[in-house]
């Protein structure tokens, strides 16, 4: 191994590419293996470990593709794959035995499992092992080329897994720079972090900030496992089991961790199960470690959820009260969107400024409320569910605003240039009349969301029937905004239907307010505004 390492270090990048790049093509990840060569030349604290985890993941996927040249169902476990007769036929039994010494057996170096389960601290794995696996992969490529020429077979690579419905995975809000900066301080203070593993945590957060989302999650998942094992062994006073990873033990860890964390209104079991284990879920860890995911296209949404969950654990097991995780809810719809439309994209004298619904007062209220930081950390499920619905409503309102502004601007130019056909002119006038009504309604919804967010934690005081009724109302508002996105599109132009739907929604809002089901007693401004709209 040392000789191979010295040999590779003696090569320039250009020399390495010329001599070896061809023999990495069979992996379908040539660029990744070339990047691993760069790691050997200038090893950072965590780069060798990250390179090895990515290398073993992609190598396993490629070996599975080779297996399918002969076999039918590729083994799920790497040790079974490496021990298969099919790979021995292609590469030779002696070669497979050497490979198993490095990555396929608990009786060997077992590099893959040692790293993916978080048992190796930074720089504990010598770079020479990474060099040797790089060298072996190129050798496998040469042997495979010979086999394919002899058998006239064609190697087919299986498609990568594609994550569907990413919006449904959203449990935590989107992370911003402020949150990540706090997380970097929390890592140094939290008892959830094994101090020897600190460089991995810092590297993971750095990778997220650099938009290297696959690297971030690859570095972070093993450390989450280490932290959970540390918590379990500390709680149960069995430090000798910190280096245990058998299935039964991990199930016990999950059970006990769940019991411990539920004391502060978290939901670790559901989150870990949904993201890591559930057969119909994303199964992030399995798919990353088995090479089923295209690392270059790893979605930010998934990385955001994993990092956010990690930060909540850091917060929970930090003794420093000064470092509290603060989630800021930003209302994405500018309160002045429709004022822009009225001012810039309508024929003059079409509307009166008196038509606007207390625009100045509403603007001031929204600015003040939107500057309020809402902390949802450690909050019970009803709070989180409600916030998610609010976020979806604001997103839909944003889409409505953007579509209407773009459509109105276009039609205004066509109106001034006298290029609109008769039906288009009719639709344009209907749209302008509708906007006069739609603008204050969206302002009303914005104020409603903002006021409810300020009092979001009161939702936990509702009994189950009241909460379900409240949630049903919010989802009806969400459905209304989703319908608005469709009805106001240039393709639909359903402005009459929009007005009818809006009237029904206003009546629904008024009934809920009259029944005192909102989270707060509405202030004078809101009552005045709502009454004006309804009238």
From TrEMBL:
PANTHER family: ENDOPLASMIC RETICULUM MEMBRANE-ASSOCIATED RNA DEGRADATION PROTEIN. Pfam families: DUF4209. InterPro entries: DUF4209, ERMARD. This is ER membrane associated RNA degradation. Residues 59-139 form the DUF4209 domain. It comes from the Eukaryota.
